[in-house]
Design a protein that fits this description.
Number of helices: 11
Strand order of the largest sheet: 2-1-10-8-7-3-5-6-11
Helix content: 40-55%
Shape: elongated
Number of domains: 2
Order of helices and strands: HHHHEEHEEHEHEHHEEEHEHE
Structural class: alpha/beta
Largest sheet: 9 strands, mixed
Distance between the termini: 48 Å
Length: 257
Amino acid sequence: MRSLVHVPLAELRALHHAVTAGRVPWPLGESSLQAEGLGHHAAPLLAALGDLDRVGVLALLAVVIAERTLQPVPRVHLVWTGPEAKRARARDTAVVLRELFESATASVLIAGYTFHQARELFAPLHAAMAARGVTARAFVHIERREKDPDDPDACARQFAGHFFRDHWPWPSPRPELFYDPRTVSAHRTGEFVSLHAKCVVVDAERTLIGSANFTSRAQTRNIEAGVLIEDRRLATNLLEQFGGLVRSGDFQRIPDA
């Protein structure tokens, strides 16, 4: 079925109709597909359907067509911080972030490069965690400063202490914090790496991706652009990207401070 991904829905329907009407000679071959105007998709169609009989072809096409038809179209919204045009259709970054946190029912993933004066931004998330048992993971960038501990783990624990003091003052519940040790070890290895992604995934359904950091200025005064995408497949894929990096050890959890 995977080979049918790039065959347009209209052409799958056309083939289903032709097979149902008895216009396609058997076994299914390139010449019969060309006769129906489908020759340019012969390779993927034959890879997926060539070994099936007529009943099997109809059954598989019906399943793929139904899946394509019922799958909701992703909803995409422009998200913006800063001055707006007279006919602006963008949604405000701070408003979208607050609504995402307030509406969370199961899980939230956050990835950010910079956090500053973020306790007001995170207050709705803490409320959702306290009221509904929402779990949260935050992937953060840690850049060792001159006076910071040389050991990456110690530097990460120090960062966590500052994070929970300055941006998450509530003792419980708390998000899990994860970091890439390469960002802390750059002064020793010469490999300068940043976690520069800025995104939020809520309930494996909605994803906010953009340029705005988790700072008051980025949420309210800078010029920032982003997109809010309501699509379960994208949200799940992004969660898996970060989850895979945790499982591989590329991201490590910072022990609770």
